[in-house]
Write a structure and sequence with these properties.
Blueprint (H helix, E strand, L loop, with lengths): L5 H22 L16 H30 L6 H9 L12 H14 L18 H5 L14 H14 L3 H30 L12 H11 L3 H9 L4 H16 L3 H12 L7 H13 L4 H26 L21 H13 L4 H27 L5 H14 L9 H10 L6 H14 L10 H20 L36
Helix pairs in contact: 1-2, 1-3, 2-8, 4-6, 4-7, 6-7, 7-8, 7-10, 7-17, 8-17, 9-18, 10-11, 10-12, 10-17, 11-13, 12-13, 12-16, 14-15, 15-16, 16-17, 17-18, 18-19
Length: 507
């Protein structure tokens, strides 16, 4: 049937995206004030109708995405970037969707302009005469008095948006969406580049072409409705962190490790989890430089030193101070039901203590310790050549998310996009990540709230997706040539010489 062809999927997904956007105008995360007559709360009947339309559109988009992936796994060729444009386009002028975080971003940028300590106070400090006051009124209750957990690079970008738009809500939000589109472009470019390095490679696709392998990687990473809804629709800065992090990894894979480490440093100054990439860049370099303990130590130290210098320089230039060092744990104080360690800690605390918070804090720390152990294990596997450093990075980020004290649905994208870039999008584990992505897309409502029915819909989608995936095994992609990231110790993986900032082999 035509609807199950790649062209049919493109149309079906575009219709779903359009319905999500249209429903968002009535049921999205609308501002409390400052909507300028465009984004205004409506009566309950219209709001409910908009939410139903948005959920129906989301279901169409997910169905189109899944079928599109089936077609690509079967070897179909299509204009994937065109499909991405069709699916992302309807979301560009929509109000914020599924999250109010963008109002925090605008308010924090305004706090910097107004001279407030963004790492010492929350958006509630903005008074009626301050820039960003209207945006601050729409910040979610948990975050109103919470200091910014983000790095100075992101705050400078938010500050620039507020300065250019005067802090008016609608223009400022659309300005943040331009940053989200830039993040999407970075993700697309980096995923394609890494897919060429780790997949069938340039024999099937040159630098200007996507190719079947790159198309599949983009399907899991960039066309993923979880990314479209939460990065393009919700404008989460996780997209910028992922884009910069993967760009830095790509540069390192292509022998430009100094510049790559600097870019990862910038990613870390958006959100700190990007720092995990430095470990695997170091392992990649150590293997490329010939292996051995000395090269391993150099690999572990040098990229981190470059990234640290960039982070320090960015902090000094931004003028926001080093308060971000002490606010990295503030998110953990807010309970999210998706955090296994927080749920276990709270449940155990209620059983054994009058005040569950100290017990919960201990379990959260144990969860992070377990994540570090898993990351070290994956690093060892990458060092031994049993895992691609890129794939090991993706798995490490997934482990970090699973065991973190605070987990949001879009955090899954940290590891999913990286796994896609590693060239394993067609495998069973990646198929499971696709199912999990689809399920988590339902968890938050278009209004940004997390209702009980959101978890019910997510559970239903997970059950249906797992059943579908179990009944239908996707065909494996063509075997890849040994990628540069998997090259044996002492080799480069290709005949291309090292770049200008590649270190010489150690004696």
């Amino acid at each position: 049937m035509w609807v199950f062809s790649t062209a049919g999927c493109r149309w079906l997904g575009a219709a779903g995206s359009l319905a999500v956007a249209a429903g968002g105008w009535a049921a999205g995360t609308l501002p409390v004030r400052g909507g300028q007559g465009l984004w205004q709360p409506h009566g309950s009947a219209l709001t409910v109708a908009g939410a139903v339309l948005a959920y129906l559109g989301l279901t169409l988009l997910l169905a189109a995405w899944w079928q599109y992936g089936r077609q690509l796994a079967a070897g179909a060729r299509d204009r994937v970037l065109v499909t991405l444009g069709w699916w992302a386009g309807p979301l560009l002028l929509a109000p914020p969707l599924h999250s109010a975080d963008v109002y925090s971003y605008v308010a924090q940028g305004a706090m910097v302009l107004e001279g407030h300590d963004v790492y010492g106070a929350g958006p509630s400090v903005l008074g009626p005469g301050d820039l960003g006051h209207d945006a601050a009124a729409s910040v979610g209750g948990h975050w109103t008095d919470t200091p910014a957990p983000y790095g100075p690079v992101f705050l400078v970008l938010a500050q620039a948006v507020v300065k250019l738009t005067g802090g008016a809500v609608v223009p400022a939000v659309l300005g943040m969406r331009l940053l989200a589109l830039a993040a999407l472009a970075l993700i697309v470019r980096a995923v394609l580049g890494l897919a060429r390095e780790t997949g069938p490679g340039r024999s099937q696709a040159g630098e200007g072409r996507v190719g079947v392998h790159g198309a599949g990687a983009l399907w899991l990473a960039a066309l993923n409705p979880l990314l479209l809804i939460h990065v393009v629709g919700g404008m989460h800065n996780d997209g910028l962190m992922i884009g910069l992090m993967l760009t830095g990894v790509l540069l390192a894979v292509r022998d430009r490790w100094v510049l790559g480490s600097a870019v990862i440093g910038l990613a870390t100054m958006v959100k700190s989890p990007a720092a995990v990439a430095l470990l695997f860049v170091g392992i990649l370099l150590a293997r490329r430089w010939g292996g051995g303990v000395r090269n391993l130590l150099r690999g572990l130290v040098l990229p981190g030193a470059v990234a640290a210098a960039v982070a320090a320089g960015a902090t000094l230039l931004a003028g926001t101070g080093f308060g971000w060092l002490r606010t990295q744990s503030v998110a953990g104080t807010i309970h999210t039901a998706l955090s296994v360690s927080s749920d276990l800690g709270l449940g155990l605390g209620l059983l054994v203590a009058d005040d569950p918070e100290p017990v919960k804090a201990v379990v959260q720390k144990l969860g992070l310790l377990a994540a570090l152990v898993l990351i070290a294990f994956l690093g060892r596997r990458a060092w031994q050549g049993r895992l691609s450093p890129v794939l090991a990075l993706g798995l490490s980020l997934l482990a970090l998310v699973a065991l973190s004290p605070m987990v949001q649905p879009w955090y899954l994208l940290w590891g999913t996009a990286t796994v896609a870039a590693a060239g394993v999008w067609h495998t069973r584990p990646a198929q499971f990540l696709a199912v999990l992505s689809a399920a988590l897309t339902y968890e938050t409502a278009p209004s940004g709230h997390t209702p009980a029915y959101g978890f019910a819909l997510a559970g239903l989608a997970l059950a249906v997706g797992l059943l579908w995936a179990r009944r239908e095994r996707w065909p494996a992609a063509a075997p890849a040539h040994p990628p540069r990231a998997l090259a044996p110790a002492g080799t480069t993986g290709t005949s291309r010489p090292h770049g200008a900032d590649s270190a010489p082999d150690a004696p």
